[in-house]
Amino acid sequence: xxxxxxxxxxxxxxxxxxxxxxxxxxxxxxxxxxxxxxxxxxxxxxxxxxxxxxxxxxxxxxxxxxxxxxxxxx
Length: 74
What we know:
Elements: H1 2-11, H2 20-34, H3 41-48, H4 52-63
Helix pairs in contact: 1-2, 2-3, 2-4
């Protein structure tokens, strides 16, 4: 799921000019939420070694895209 989210971010040019770790961190966080894993932003920040603000910015950017506004039906 995270790989598909990264591919979607690439299509929306979110990764351009940005460190890959921030994009990957946002994709991992969204993927974890989709699959029901309990992890916080600080957990992801400690794994991908980016600032919490960077992760939040990537999440906001992804949320502003068409893909980011989709819902998950289980």
